[in-house]
Design goal:
mainly alpha, about 270 residues, about 75% helix
């Protein structure tokens, strides 16, 4: 059909018309980001509760661990009651922290809207089969990134923060965490987990261009298990195996998913 041919669509618009359309897409994306950032910025109390919730022992993850500890009769899993004081030593840090947190959360919230704008711009230039493939790939990127951020927020950061925040080198030392230090680790943890969860998409893309293959990933599966455990131990520097398992299992499942989505190695022609 003529409407499904991307070359037909391209002929309907000149280069400058495409450029103008792209300009409007970028402008709409900036407006969407600005609106989301502004809404988050105006809801400072809610934003503060979200960012600093892991600071207290009443956080949802800690309560869940205590329930699990009670069910399996392993009291060491329960973090117990604790609270780490976060202090500020810089004059402008509260304001800039508010700005940066609003920006990051606003960007995260605006990802689906930006994906829609980009999709509406790119879709007319693609064949139906290409549209489905590109849409699934883009949606998978956003979904996996969000899942990684949520895992970082509810599992990795709280457990790492509790261990590092309550660890004492000596009884005479009182732990008071600087605001800048807290936010730096908070951002780094969530961003790194979001990027780690892009592993299946990266594997699919690399296999499409022939850099890796399904057989290669299967060959290094045992090495991947060891690497996942090491990375999990670094991310969550706690002593209990349950916490290590909470982080390592999702990461290993990502590797298995990467094997499934990767293309097989093409056989060389005889």
């Amino acid at each position: 059909m003529a409407q499904d041919n991307p070359t037909t669509t391209k002929q309907e618009m000149t280069f400058w018309e495409h450029l103008e359309a792209l300009r409007w897409v970028l402008l709409r994306m900036l407006i969407a980001v600005a609106v989301c950032v502004g809404v988050v910025f105006l809801n400072k109390d809610l934003l503060t509760q979200i960012v600093f919730a892991p600071q207290s022992g009443d956080f949802a993850t800690y309560r869940a661990l205590c329930r699990i500890a009670q069910a399996v009769h392993v009291e060491d899993l329960c973090p117990g009651t604790f609270s780490v004081e976060v202090i500020n030593t810089r004059l402008a840090s509260p304001f800039f922290t508010h700005m940066s947190a609003s920006m990051y959360v606003g960007l995260l919230l605006s990802l689906p809207v930006m994906l829609i704008f980009v999709w509406r711009f790119v879709a007319p230039a693609l064949y139906p089969r290409e549209r489905r493939r590109v849409f699934v790939l883009a949606a998978s990127c956003v979904l996996l990134f969000v899942v990684g951020v949520l895992l970082g927020y509810y599992v990795v950061f709280p457990l790492a923060f509790r261990f590092l925040g309550t660890y004492q080198f000596g009884e005479q030392i009182v732990n008071r965490i600087d605001l800048h230090s807290y936010m730096s680790i908070f951002y780094a943890t969530l961003l790194s987990m979001g990027l780690v969860f892009e592993m299946p998409v990266l594997s699919y893309a690399l296999s499409r261009v022939g850099i890796i293959s399904r057989e290669l990933l299967k060959q290094y599966r045992r090495h991947a298990v060891v690497l996942v455990v090491v990375v999990g131990a670094i991310i969550t520097p706690t002593s209990d195996p349950f916490t290590l398992m909470l982080v390592s299992i999702p990461m290993y499942l990502l590797y298995e998913l990467s094997i499934l989505v990767a293309r097989r190695k093409l056989k060389a022609a005889a």
